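U., I forgot to send this yesterday:
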Amino acid sequence: MRRGYITVFLSLSLTLILSLVFAVIEGARISAIRMKFECVTDIGMNSVLAEYHRELLKQYDLLFVDTSYGGSHPEIANTEAHLYNYTQKNCRPAEGNSLTGGRDFLAMDMGAVEIPEYSVASDENGTVLKRQVTDYMNDYPLGAVLDKIGANVGLLQGFGIDTKDVDGWRRQYEAEIDAIGLPEKETEDGEMEEVPLNNPADFVNATRSSGVLNLVLENPSAVSAVKVDLGDYISHRSKRMTGTGLCAEAVETGGAPNELVFQAYLFEKCGYYGAEMDKSLLKYQMEYIVAGKDTDWQNLEQVAKKLLLWREAANMMYLLSDGAKMAEAQALATALTAVILMPALAEPVKFTILFAWAYVESLQDVKTLLGGGRVPVFKTAADWKTGIGCLKDVKGSLTEDSGGNGLSYKEYLQIMVFLQNAESRTERAMDIMEMDIRQTPGNARFRLDGCFDTYQAHLEVTSRFGYSYEMTRRYGFY
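Result:
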């Protein structure tokens, strides 16, 4: 009888003990599923970021994931598929695990994998991209550079050089001459014709349509002849992939985008006339950012024209302050009008001569800048290069000059970029990036609007043992 009582007691005890053991095992399974889901999510989301675009990092020090993965159709569904594959492979162990005898203790499978939020490089007019730029430039010694740019811009704007309508100003005096009119004389054929004034300003004005580069460059044919189809790049693309905008966590960690920092970054990463980069498609990249034309020639020409206008305004202001040069122009105008007995024309003719002189001096300035020299914003008598006798031979009077003091071509270009509309500056900069990346192997259809740097994923996991869990995480380069 006692043996029987002991057997029943042990049976009852074993039932309780086994129930406890199985409960502990099941609790361990639940905890293990949750923990593994955490680990799988971390590994999978980091693996997605590990597929950052190598060429974008190499050339521009930017970390973005290309959702086209070298293809021609960027879309976030491609990244969702990548994330699913990474997490699913980590959910299921290899067959024949020696510890479990080939059986999966957790039997996990990934369910839905969605990426509802992601920050694309071009979101909010490139704000996402500029946030990374600001973060990258954090240790760059920007203070002195930015202060100098600000001072130069202030100097230019303070006197209205960037907005002064020199052509309109000049035409006012030409209109005065036309209003008074020149005397006429009868020809041998009995017809009446105007007596020529022989104003040297007319010779100068005849060259204005020749194109700045043709006048200031010794060998215009050496200018890059590269032409691009702008319709294929982001600034001209009608359909873009868009994300959810700038990530607040990224701003808190790396700081908000800064336009001045972005400008300094562009001059570090992009080439310009006289400092071209081998990697570039368009050789004059900063000029493209300013002008936005489809050829290197047009971009350089537009920048040269703007330089010429600025220099004309500044040089005209100087001439009006220089008594000796004003006297030279007055003497020449008086002599020309005395010959035709029209003293009333002396004053407007004087000013047309001054405008012509300022124009020739400005051509000399542009030639100096493109040749690697320097030109001050405001000149002194010592800085002036041309004489009044140069007006009858404009191109022949221009000389090579790589010296001088004042601002360099790069510094004038920095002022132009600073004064430019931020939206066009950013979009054209993104064009340049696309152009350069597309020249590398496997990136023929690269698009910045298909690249993201931060994303939020919502994942679900199920187990054949009847459990399911969900998780939402945000990862990114910040």
